[in-house]
Amino acid sequence: MSQENVEIVRRGNDAFNRGDFERFAESLHPDIEFRDLAHAADAPETLRGAQALPSLMSEWRESFDEFRAEISEYIDAGDHVVCVTRWTGRGKASGAVVDVAQVDVY
User: Fold this and answer.
1) Burial (0-12, 13-18, 19+ Cβ within 10 Å), 81
2) What is the rounded CA–CA span in Å between residue 52 and residue 96?
3) CB-based burial of residue 11 (10 Å sphere; 0-12 exposed, 13-18 middle, 19+ buried)?
4) Rounded CA separation 24/17 (Å)
5) What is the C-alpha separation between 104 and 82, in angstroms, rounded?
6) Which uninterrupted H or E stretch holds 87?
7) Which pTM does this prediction carry?
8) How far apart are CA 40 and CA 96, in angstroms?
9) Could you read off the pLDDT of 5-25 as tens digits, one per residue?
10) How far, in Å, CA of 22 to CA of 39, rounded?
11) What is the pLDDT of residue 57?
């Protein structure tokens, strides 16, 4: 099952980077709980449900040009997938560059 999980995360990330939030949502479990420990001040730390996350990511896309999640490594961790991720973009209003490296767990 774990390699299958890696492929699900890979397909979801590809859809996100294309801006295909419908396909991205299809890769999520209906009862997903998303926790962002480095969340923006105006965003909640925890979101629940498959439609909440694409909605948040759509807001990010509205605020940033070229907002992407470049995953350099997918690590099969049994029931989880650990991803080494570089989030990049540029603020539409400010022009400020976002370039954050982090590890995400799915």
Assistant:
1) buried
2) 26
3) middle
4) 9
5) 6
6) strand 80-91
7) 0.85
8) 15
9) 999 999 999 998 998 888 888
10) 23
11) 79
